[in-house]
Write a structure and sequence with these properties.
2 copies of one chain form a homodimer.
Chain A (H helix, E strand, L loop, with lengths): L3 E7 L5 E7 L2 E5 L1 E3 L12 H7 L3 E4 L1 H6 L3 H6 L3 H5 L4 E4 L3 H6 L2 E5 L4 E4 L6 E4 L1 H11 L3 E3 L11 H25 L15 E6 L5 H14 L3 E4 L8 H11 L9 E3 L5 H10 L3 E3 L2 H7 L2 E4 L2 E4 L19 H5 L2 H9 L3 H27 L5
Parallel strand pairs in A: 4-14, 5-6, 10-11, 11-12, 12-13, 13-14
Antiparallel strand pairs in A: 1-2, 2-3, 7-8, 8-9, 15-16
Helix pairs in contact in A: 6-7, 7-8, 10-14, 11-14, 13-14
């Protein structure tokens, strides 16, 4: 068995409170998934992530394939064991990073040839190879190999990109089904297996999105993601695409919007029926000194915080807000201290995870007339 | 009252198990003090330091004076409050950093003129100014302003340097006694005050060391440090100087050897009767991937650890050794991940603090014949 989704309650707007049963963790949804690119949510120890209530984190296939290498991770029992993370994990397909980070890409129907951003070495990724890598990593959820269509893309470009993504989805699924028993933890979780999600693309074209969703559903993935959003398009277009695609997707499978978003966005999308979201924003912004709070955004390096003895967020009870002042966080950043990234990230993740906790609670309540 | 030292047990070799009562903490000695240069033990959150059993940490006067500035820290209630550290603290005098980090120094009997290593701005440190800064920071223990004599130094140079240090010790003490009531937490700890330690210098000349110790004892400091060691001299010379000076110092006051050392050194010096030691070694080495373990030193970046699934130290039960493998720590370092410094530092500090815990336990036991 791959995953199982137990719907607990659904509101009229589409938002649903559910439990997503994965081999390593039953995830309470809607859920926000912190990004742990290279086998670490940058600057935060795993026990702290646990205390923060993170249920599922991401690993990036492209990064882990290049370093330390998926075969090494397979030999060490998979990514969970390698990084000592007992809860759920999801890996992306590597496609996004191949297209955004690597050099000298050459895309053919067969796959993508690229040079590593680390050492310039040459590599070739195909849907089959992405599956092999993701099976070796052994996350609870793997993603089909896709091309994230850029924005803006004209219709011809979006169509061609979608054609590639759909062909690759088919090949991803076939290879995954044939090899998913090779996951390194197969023996530890008898009867449980990885899940594979298909990714809806199609640029900002409604009919292409529809075509994409229908083709993927016909293939019958374990869950469905909406990709190619938050790539530079205006926010109302993001919202429109999500609103368009969500009702097309089956109700009994998880729905994942990739790479979003700001705090108010993740709340809004969760209420519309998105079950899973991930974004580098809370962690990356933290490292640049941008804190998300109940009172808005704080640029912690600002001189006005130099002697501000209030907590980062007076309405937050995270370990950072309980103990440290804005003045101290500003000082750490000014002084280029490593603790700056750690404390800022802990707060931002607490804020994001707290939002989703509140959304889950509100989705459990009977709706008001 | 400044500090009080309760001697619990003394062994023939001179080593003593004691309790050092300071305003913010009763410190079990012998003690190792992690260095928290700019108001943070680099890469480690304060709650982790507490879990590790750190009883007293250092702050560097030079760094904190330059950024965020001692007057700002005074206005915020002192360094303990600013960094949220409720246990004991010690600040150095700023002298060592003025001499080692700053540019264009000009030393006169009056003090030291220097340029900031941060922005080139011009500053003037005198013994009186060092006291004012340290009183504003409000550590439990402050240090007299001294010149750390370099190694090698010929006799004339060591004599002249000592003359300066002794004159500055007198002026430090006079100014400290006149102003110590201005410490920011005076009202919170009625009847308790900061302590000031004198620093024995004299290069590697026994008679100069003796002269230095005698002059300082005549001034009657709250405790005594041995400075100017671990500055490049051979290790048996360090040991000889410590062995020479320790018996000269009063038994009823704490003895602090500054800037030492390797794990076996801190154990050895503690057994000889040194009560307090500090060193950047465990924290700085950690950031460069050097781990101290019961089985020797590990250069964690070494390729041989790439798939080593053992803990950093099989005999260590710190939070890092309980959870993470050598392979993972190697990966974090290879990938330049921030978590590398955090985990490596936590282990090294656990190892250093663990050594001192064992030494304390052994000093409590009745000696064998």
């Amino acid at each position: 068995m791959a995953l199982a989704l137990d719907l607990l309650h659904t509101i009229d707007a589409g938002g649903r409170r559910a439990q997503l049963h994965l081999p390593h963790q039953t995830v309470e949804t809607p859920v926000f998934m912190p990004v742990g690119t290279a086998g670490t949510v940058k600057a935060v120890p795993q026990d702290t992530l646990e205390s923060l209530g993170a249920q599922i984190i991401l690993g990036n296939t492209y990064h882990l394939y290049l370093r330390p290498g998926h075969e090494a991770i397979r030999r060490m029992g998979g990514l969970h064991k390698f990084i000592s993370w007992p809860r759920a994990m999801l890996t992306d397909s590597g496609g996004f990073q191949v297209f955004s980070l690597s050099e000298l890409r050459k895309v053919t129907d067969e796959g993508v040839k690229f040079r590593s951003h680390l050492d310039g070495s040459s590599h070739f990724f195909t849907p089959e190879h992405s599956m092999d890598v993701q099976i070796a990593l052994g996350a609870d959820i793997a993603m089909a190999f896709d091309e994230c269509t850029e924005y803006p893309a004209d219709r011809a470009r979006a169509e061609e990109s979608l054609r590639l993504t759909m062909a690759w989805a088919r090949r991803s699924l076939d290879h995954f089904r044939a090899h998913q028993h090779e996951v390194p933890w197969a023996a530890d979780f008898a009867g449980r297996s990885q899940s594979l999600f298909g990714i809806v693309q199609g640029g900002m074209y409604r009919d292409l999105r529809k075509q994409s969703a229908e083709q993927l559903m016909e293939m019958d993935f374990d869950g469905y993601a909406i990709g190619g959003l938050s790539v530079g398009e205006p926010r109302d277009l993001t919202l429109e695409m999500i609103a368009e695609v969500l009702p097309m997707l089956p109700k009994d499978k998880p729905r994942y919007v990739m790479g979003v978003g700001y705090p108010d966005e993740i709340e809004q999308y969760a209420r519309m029926g998105v079950d899973m979201m991930d974004c580098v924003l809370p962690t990356r912004a933290a490292r640049h000194g941008l804190l998300f709070t109940s009172e808005g955004r704080l640029t912690i390096k600002n001189k006005k915080f130099a002697e501000d003895q209030g907590p980062p967020d007076p309405n937050c009870d995270c370990m950072v807000c309980r103990r440290y002042t804005r003045a101290y966080l500003r000082h750490l950043m000014q002084a280029g201290e490593a603790l700056s990234a750690t404390l800022n990230t802990i707060h931002n993740l607490a804020y994001y995870l707290g939002i989703m906790q509140k959304v889950r609670a509100s989705l459990e309540k009977p709706q008001q007339a």
